Automatic annotation (TrEMBL):
InterPro entries: FAD-bd, FAD/NAD-bd_sf, UbiH/COQ6_monooxygenase
Protein name as it appears in the record: FAD-binding domain-containing protein
Pfam families the UniProt entry points to: FAD_binding_3
Domain FAD-binding per the UniProt entry, residue ranges: 75-182, 246-321
Top-level taxon: Eukaryota
SUPFAM superfamilies associated with the record: FAD/NAD(P)-binding domain
Entry's Gene Ontology cellular component terms: mitochondrion
GO MF terms, alphabetically ordered: FAD binding
Amino acid sequence: MQVWDRRNPSFLKWSTSNNTSNNNNKKDLEEGVDDALGYVLEDRLINAEIENNLPNNVKLLCQTQLTGIEEIGGEGGGKARVTYKSTDSSSTSALDVDLLIGADGGNSSVRRLLNIPTSSHSYGQVACCATISTVGGAEYRHGHNTAYQRFLDEGPVAMLPLWDGLYNIVWTMEPDTAKEVKADPDGFIGRLQEAIMKGPESSGPPSVLSAITDGLGLVNMNEFHSPSSSTYFTPPPTPTSLVSPILSFPLSTHAAHNYVKGNCVLIGDAAHGVHPMAGQGLNLGLADVEELVLRVGSSVGGGGKVNDKLGLEIYERKRMRKVMVAQGGIHALREIFRFKGPGDMGGIGRAVGMAGVNMVPGLKEQLKQAAMGL
Ligand SMILES: Cc1cc2nc3c(=O)[nH]c(=O)nc-3n(C[C@H](O)[C@H](O)[C@H](O)COP(=O)(O)OP(=O)(O)OC[C@H]3O[C@@H](n4cnc5c(N)ncnc54)[C@H](O)[C@@H]3O)c2cc1C
């Protein structure tokens, strides 16, 4: 993965031992190679895999809308009664469950029906998303397995590798810019090339920036180098054509004040949401699942119930703490990359910061582990 900034002469690059091989995302997954910083997975494939592996005793109720959730059977040890109606009928049905898990996304009906207070903040920006094909560049020779992210004035533009030279684009921009971009699909590739096919540029006072780069031993990032070393800046492959519609999503962050209420628990985006710039949204949800499985497993394994109060409390406490740290970190990162300051102090500060990350032993590795959710 390579991250760089429009406004400072530095970059960060993380590699694995597998990075210079001829493998790519799809091949790695097929072969079970587990030597990657992360994977780009399509939502529909994850969902299909889950559906195909559901045990026989799971009953799916599709096209339904939740209409109410209430606790029954008293405090502790009771059940949650869930009422719902089919989207094509007005009659309601009810289910009594030991544990209700709300995994219904950012606009969670479960969270709303439980009246769980939620803090949210709109960034006032949107993410434009599309799939593109590419050609050439270092990736052409070394397999498409590097994710690129360049921070521009309006926000980051990311190129995430799929297979056969295809990349997903996630591009943060102002809503007005997004409108222009969506209205002109033919101009998308040109705009994207302009946005991402450049090394870091120095826009601050040259004397200060060159003093920093010289003093810290940074290389001139505007010269593209061989990708074989993690020391050198790698040019992304050249975007050539748009192969999907351009979609846009409003960007916001939110946090439920409770993840557990009675016999109900929230996981994933139902409980929390983050800016996609750090690629952590789904990771945080998967970590919720892992923790919940652990807690419920140990309650049941110890002769307790699936909705054991203590187990659920531990789930809530542990996950809330970790999610708050991640949300704070991602929010801070966004602010740091947006900050300009007088005389582009922001850019200079980021140059020093990135150089520090590159030079302080272990720091880059720690950031990598955090990004991988380890
Ligand atoms: C532009 C963008 C880029 C992103 N990039 C990344 C990234 O690089 N890495 C990353 O980790 N995360 C990323 N995310 C975040 C990630 O998409 C979310 O965190 C993740 O999808 C949350 O998963 P979830 O299952 O909790 O919720 P969702 O994906 O929202 O799924 C909830 C599901 O519940 C269903 N549902 C809702 N109500 C009902 C109902 N009544 N009955 C039945 N089903 C219902 C919905 O249809 C939906 O399928 C990105 C998000 C955006 C917007």
